[in-house]
Amino acid sequence: MQWNVYSDGRCEVKQNTSQRDKKGKSIIAFPDEFVMVDIETTGCDARYNEIIEISAIRIKDDQVIDRFSMLIRPWNDIDPFITNLTGITNQMVQDAPRVGEVIKHFLRFIRPEDIILGYNVNFDINFLYDNALSEADYYLNNDFVDVLRIARKLIKNTENDKLKTIAAFYGISYEGAHRGEQDCIICLECYRQLRSELDKQSMSEADFIDSFNKRSSNGYFTNQIRVKDIVSDKTAFDENHPLFSKVCVFTGALEKMSRKDAMQMVVDLGSICGDQVTRKTNYLVLGNLDYVKSIEEGKSSKMKKAEGYILAGQDIEIISENVFYELISGG
DNA sequence: TCTCCTCGAGATCT
DNA sequence: CTCGAGGAGA
C-alpha cells in the first residue's frame, strides 16, 4: 500500500494505479513489423522499483531496421544484487539521463500502432506504462505479444520456460544476457525458432492463434476440448484394432499427455470420442481427479454415470490411463 | 451442445 | 497472471 503525504499532515491512499486501464491487450500474432523490447530495473515490482535501461529493436520482414538503447540514472542506488545480475553499476549510470528524458526518447522511437514483443513482456509493459504516464503524461496502449506464452504452448519437454532455457533448447547463445539489447536479440532468435516450430509441428499460424483465442463473447475462458474439434485426416483405418469404432470418454487429467492429444490418437484409430457418458460409451478413461475439489468420494459425474450403466448391464469399461495406452498400442 | 462459472496448479520478469 | 480441467443449467 502506498500513501500520498501532504505538507499539512494529511495522508491518503495513493490512487490505485494497478488498474492500468488504457493498457494494450496481450495478443498472439506474428506481425511482419514489430518492436522487440526489454528493460532492466532495480527490482521486480513496478510500484517500488525503477527502470535503469530501456532497449528496443524494430524488425520489419525479418530485418532489424532500427535500434534504441539507453541507460537511466535512478533516484536510488542500484542494489548489488542487480549489479551482479545485469552488470550495470552505479558508476555506469552516473552521467545517464533520468527516466523522464529517456522515456520521452523511447516514446518517439515507438509508434502508437506498433506491436511490442518481449519475453514475459507484461513485466516491461507495466514499468513503461507507469513511467510514460507519470513522466510524459502519455498512455502507452500498444498491444503486445508475449513470446513466453508462445514458448509455453509449443515447447513441452524443457524443465521450465525461462528465456535462458528456451535459448539453450535452440542452441542460442546466452552470452551477455540481462542487458537490454542482448536480451532483445536472444528473444528475437527464440521467436524466430518458435515460429518455425509451427512448420515442424505442421500447424498453421492461424490454427495456433485460434487455440489461444477460444473465448466466448463475454470474455470467459471456454477452453474445453470438444469432440467436434477433434477430427482425423486419415481415411482408412485398421478395422481389427481393439478400439476401432468404439466410443471413448475421458474424465480427469491424464498424466502422460494432454486430453486433446489422447483424443487425437483415438480418432486417428477410427474410434469415436464422446463428451459425456451415454449408453453408447464403451470405455471411460480415468485420469487424475485428485485436484478437483468439487468431486465427492473421488468420483466425477462421468464415473458415477458409467457405474450406473454398468450395474444396468451396459457394455462399458472403466479403464486406467495405462490400460488405455495398452489398448491404443493394439494390445 | 452451448453459455456461464469455479477451481487448482504452476510460473516469469529484475 | 495464464491455462487446463469439470460442472450446472438451459
What report would you give on this structure?
This protein is an alpha/beta fold and 331 residues long. It folds into two domains: 2-212, 2-Layer Sandwich (Nucleotidyltransferase, domain 5); 227-328, Rossmann fold (3-Layer(aba) Sandwich), CATH 3.40.50. Helix content is 32%, strand content 18%. It has ten helices and twelve strands. It has helices at residues 80-86, 99-109, 121-136, 147-154, 163-169, 180-200, 205-212, 259-268, 301-311, 321-328; strands at residues 3-5, 11-13, 26-27, 33-41, 51-60, 63-71, 116-118, 144-146, 247-251, 272-274, 283-286, 317-320. The chain has a six-stranded mixed β-sheet, sandwiched between helices. A four-stranded parallel β-sheet has the order 10-9-11-12, with helices on both faces. Strands 1-2 form a two-stranded antiparallel sheet. Strand 11 (283-286), helix 9 and strand 12 form a beta-alpha-beta unit. Helix 2 crosses helix 3 and helix 4 (147-154) packs parallel to helix 6 (180-200). The protein binds a DNA duplex (14 and 10 nucleotides) through residues 26, 38-45, 49, 52, 79, 81-82, 85-86, 118-124, 126-127, 148-149, 152-153, 160-163, 178, 216-218, 220-226, 228, 251-253, 258-259, 275, 287, 289, 291-295, 300-302.
